[in-house]
Amino acid sequence: MISAMSLTRRHVLGAGAAALTAAVAGCGRGDSGWVDGQAGGGTGGGGTAAAAVPAYVAPLKAVLTKYLKSTTANPKHPTYAGAALVVMVNNSTTANLAVGHALRYGAGPVELATAKRVAMRTDSIFDLASLTKVWVSVALLQQVDRGKVDLDAPVARYLAGFTGTGKDKVTVRMLLTHTSGLPVGVTGVKGLTVAAQRAKVLATPLVSGAVPGRTFRYSSAGLMVAGQLVEKVTGTALDVAVKNGITAPMGARYMGFNPRKWLTAADQAARLVATDTRTARGLLRGTVHDDIAAQMGGVIGSAGLFGTARDVALLGQMLLAGGVYGGKRILSAAIVKDMLTNHNAGLPAIDPERPGRPSDHGLGVTLRQPWFMGSLSSPTTFGHTGFTGTSLLVAPQHKLVVSLLTNRAHPNWSWADPDPMRAEVATTLAEYL
Q: Which regions of the chain are under pLDDT 50?
């Protein structure tokens, strides 16, 4: 049975035999990893001494492999065609796994012949979907750090086109805590220019009866506005701001928007992870899955970023370390503390997809969400999920970062609900910590 989660958000936003591998991807100086049970070399150049494989590596591999087929949670279809997982503990990679396929189906969808499939790799590059929101939030918070943005100022102070009844009360902070009263998404209009669609985003009205600051209501529209705010105050395009301010300083070489513009032909063929195969756009591989993002050139504040499991984990490690990675400060320690604090205490949550979910949310990251954090959920555990099957989970109490990327939208996003799998991975890991 397909959950309401799978149906509602996509409708509102308007989108339309497995290889098993494991390899090491260094995530920082002194970082170490495991290759299918054998100690791997670190990134310091000389390798690391042999070490015992963490007890959770084999169970995690078993869980990832299980969801390559139908399960009781998703009885009609596999949850995904493939997945990549990076686990970091105390800034060391302790698990780095890949299962299944980056490409298994062609347009139609039709299952491809074995020879035409592409195996998932630990360095495969995924459409991160709403994980993009975390990077855009960091880019905006960098401007807060620099004194160019006031979190408690009205959004309209920076974006003149942000107009409409009640919107003068919407602050920058509310965009990041999803308490603005803006709706889940915006509708696209065929043939509308990018400039006209951008203006349409800013003019999006509040949900009927919504009072800014009173209720948690997940809003991609709010992060689309946040992305435009970043562009306004930096004077650069959003993709450039994210690259210059975050991914390049952190050494996330294979993270960015519109990867077909910067990946080599060989990497496109071997590393890009496919998503939908049913839409009017045909097989999507290296092209953003979200329809609104596609209509706006692939670069918006709510979706469009692509990256590897390692690159996603790096951001979690940076936040865990108080804003520093590889000796470079990305955010101040004070703004990181504010980012990871629950700003929605006592507020109700309205989420038809997950009734009863906590409203807990920081600035661009959600907190205490058992539906994807499993037994690792706690008041300080933070992270985010993406519609294509991606997720980032950080548990400060364990100095733990979990980057779990899947292509559950390949070939059909409605085939499976990814949340049971996300929660099982987290709970399995928690049993060994």
A: 1-49
SS3 278: coil
- The C-alpha angle 62, 404, 388, rounded to 5 degrees, equals 115
The closest of 206, 119, 105, 129 to 162, measured between CA atoms, is: 206
pLDDT at residue 428, as a whole number:
98
Q: Tokens representing 325?
A: 């990675």
pLDDT of residue 50: 54
Instruction: Name the burial class of residue 91, with classes exposed (0-12), middle (13-18) and buried (19+) by CB atoms within 10 angstroms of its CB.
Output: middle
Structure tokens at 150: 């006031």
CA dist 18 and 118 (Å) reads 10
How much is the CA Rg of the chain, to the nearest whole Å?
20
What is the tens place of the pLDDT at every residue in 30-87? 343 443 333 333 333 333 445 689 999 999 999 999 999 999 999 999 999 999 999 9
Cβ count within 10 A of residue 193: 11
Q: Tokens 């090491």, residue?
A: 24
Structure confidence at residue 340 (pLDDT): 98
What are the structure tokens assigned to 409, written together? 């939208």
| β-bridge partners, 393 | 383, 402
The pTM of this model reads 0.90
Q: Please check whether residue 182 is in contact with residue 189, taking contact to mean a CB–CB distance below 8 angstroms.
A: no
Phi, psi torsion values for 136, nearest 5 degrees: -65, -40
Beta-bridge mates of residue 34:
39
CA 99, CA 116: separation in Å to the nearest integer? 17
List, in order of start, the domains of the chain with CATH numbers: 4-136+238-378+387-430 (3.40.710.10)
CA–CA gap between residue 407 and residue 410 (Å, rounded)? 6
Is the distance from CB of 19 to CB of 119 less than 8 angstroms? yes
pLDDT of residue 55: 97
Return the structure tokens found at 283: 């097989």
CA distance 91 to 44: 13
Q: Are 256 and 88 in contact (CB under 8 A)?
A: no
* Cα–Cα dist 420/375, whole Å: 12
CA dist., res. 302 & res. 32, Å (int): 33
